[in-house]
Amino acid sequence: MTGKKKISKGNIERLLNEWSQEFTVFVPSQENGVATLAKWGGGDTSFLAWYRNTITPAKANFFPPMEEMFSFRKDREGYHIELPPTDERKQLIFGIRPCDARALAILDMTFKDAYEDPYYLSKRNNTVLIGLGCLNPYDSCFCTSLGISPAESTDVDLMLTDIGDQFLIEEITQKGRELIATASGVEEATEADEGKAKEVKEASYKKVAKKIETEDIKEKLLPAFNNQDYWERAAAKCLSCGICTFLCPTCYCFDINDEMVKNQGERLRSWDSCAFPIYTKMPMENPRVEKWRRVRQRVYHKYEFYPMSFGVIACTGCGRCIRQCPVNWDITQALNGLPAKI
Amino acid sequence: MTIADISHRRKFLKTGNVYLPHTAKIEKIIDETFGERAIRTFHFNFKDEKLREEFTFESGQFAEYSVFGIGEAPFCISSSPTRKDHLEFAVLRIGKVTNALHRLGVGAEIGFRGPYGNSFPLDLLQGENLVFVAGGIGLAPLRSLIWNVIDNRDKYKNVDIIYGARSPSDLCFKYDLDTWDKDKTVNMVTTVDRSDESWTGRVGFVPKVLEEVAPSANNAIAIVCGPPIMIRFTFPVLEKLGFNPEQMITTLEKRMKCGIGKCGRCNIGNLYVCRDGPVFTYAQIKSFISSEY
Fold it and tell me: Looking at the structure, do residues A66 and A194 belong to the same domain, yes or no?
């Protein structure tokens, strides 16, 4: 008796079906070769074999690329404002990786800060996270440098580890404990199962080869802020396409715009990016019109400013910004290449 | 005297969905300046009578104003909380939302979210000599504070106001300038960059005139607002006059969307103009101001 549970891979389909009674279940899915989280339609658990990580991070389930904030309507009395209908059904995300689960904890800080963001937090409070340990990290992953172990997480409700034909289940939260208390196919794990899980986690940790030096990063970044020459060279090949920020699990910048036809309209928010010059453009001034200033902003926001505001680095080393960059821009090179402390 | 970090003075009033605007009606429009980049002051009141009674704000705070269907933009509240009949904001016609605002007439309905941000630290200004330095529409946020000070005149010592604009016809709030000019408890200095036949007053850029007026830094606080270029050239003059970075207060403007520290774009270093400002001491922003503002 280890106090931990396990479930055989063959029972996952039944488990997901059971959970679908109560939740809208999301699982890794592939469409036109793009891995995303999609609604579980039943039957297909093939993702258990191919899944490494989704291209779009789980943040999209809480902070969608485009979202209606409210609608408005004009009549003789003036404008009337109405909130969109909310989806009361709870969502369950199956298979979230430790890097992406940590990213949600980081996003929580911004969306709870000062004024609470009702759109993000209502979805966040209505969601259960089932983590799945990552055993096959990419070359571009560097989560271990950010204090994350690819197959361990306490940022989820339940954490699953692949131990061959079965998953070891760790109950992280009370919500998680309740979730599997009544689930069918769940067995008690043995000490041998737990030993196997430990081996798997350690092996996975060792596979993360890419590293950044985070220990004195703050001290190195501060004096480098005005090193224009360094940032110009670092930014040289960037295309300002913004894909690094859209796919980043901790990037949260957004735009707000109105759409209106005749007397009816909506206020919409959509993802935005510090990579775009228009992002900071004012009619008569633009503080970041040069590309190197925008590249510098992305690096500093994650590694200097966010830690100053919230005490954590706003990066989980998921590697998406490196994998998906059309010109192989690599944030770890920009960080590791910083001039040494004087 | 020392004004430490004033950002923690921000207040966050949490009431429901912070993104939902109140509706308000424009009651009066004043043409401040004319031409391609005209400036207008809008007087408005909330439609909801209860809110009209309960609404409070402090000098220096701003709000997100919207023209439904066009979008939102941030402007400071340019009236003083000591004068509660209505609220005011001033708009330079230059972009999408400001053009839409200028197309509105009296009676039109706008959206309003706020007040947001911190405010001028009145308690620290009390008992001090105040030096106001403003350029163009940058007088708008300072105007809220100036009226606040004048309405409680005995709480403050000397008041100097140095205000300038590109040309005589670009001067805003001329009705206030006249009143302050006649007010014997206020030293009002108005200047223009380029004069015309109508102008008999001072000519010269604001930082240069500030240097000529040379207010003492003793027990004084300078409050500065204007176009970024004016702000950049004013701080060194104040330093020369003996003001330390903590005796210099400014209120900044950046592109904003949310107004509440989330959408990301208005940062100066780790500070968000909306969340940690818009009122800052020069000491707070000194290391970033040369390169990002």
Answer: yes
Residue A168: inside a domain, yes or no?
yes
Chain A to chain B Cβ contacts (< 8 Å): 125
Q: Which fold has domain B122-292?
A: Rossmann fold (3.40.50)
Q: By the CB < 8 Å criterion, does B96 face chain A?
A: no
Our count of domains for chain A comes to: 2
Residues on chain B touching A260 (C-beta within 8 angstroms): 68-70
* Residue B216: both structure tokens together: 């003492």
Rounded Cα distance between A69 and A266, Å, is: 7
- Name the closest residue on chain B to residue A310, using Cα atoms: B270
- Chain A residues inside the 8 Å CB shell of B265: 253, 272, 274, 279-280
Residues A266, A203 share a domain: no
Please give the CATH topology (third level) of the domain spanning B7-116: Elongation Factor Tu (Ef-tu); domain 3 (2.40.30)
SS3 A254: strand
Closest CA to A153 of A116, A214, A204: A204
**Cβ of residue A192 closer than 8 Å to a chain B Cβ:** no
Domain extent at residue A133: 5-207
Indicate the pTM of the whole model: 0.93
A270 touches chain B (CB under 8 A): no
Residues A255 and A275 in one domain: yes
Per-run averaged pLDDT (10 residues), chain A, 342 residues: 85 95 95 90 89 96 97 95 89 98 97 92 96 97 97 97 96 95 92 96 97 87 91 96 97 97 96 95 88 96 94 97 97 92 59
ipTM over 0.95: no
Q: Cα torsion for A191, A194, A200, A206, to the nearest 10°?
A: -100
The span from the CA of A51 to the CA of A48, in Å, is 6
A156 and A13 co-located in one domain: yes
Domain contains A212: no
Instruction: Considering only the beta carbons, identify the residue of A115, A280, A308 that sits closest to B265.
Output: A280
Taking the Cβ of residue B255 and every Cβ of chain A, the question of whether any pair is shorter than 8 Å is answered with: yes
Nearest of A197, A114, A215, A110 to residue A160 by alpha carbon: A197
Q: Which residue of B has its CA nearest to A270?
A: B263
Instruction: List chain B domain ranges.
Output: 7-116, 122-292
User: Residues of B numbered 9-68 whose beta carbons fall under 8 angstroms of chain A's beta carbons: which are they?
Assistant: 10, 12, 14, 16-21, 23, 47, 66, 68
Do A99 and A35 lie in one domain? The reply is yes
* Helices then strands, each counted (H, E), chain A: 13, 12
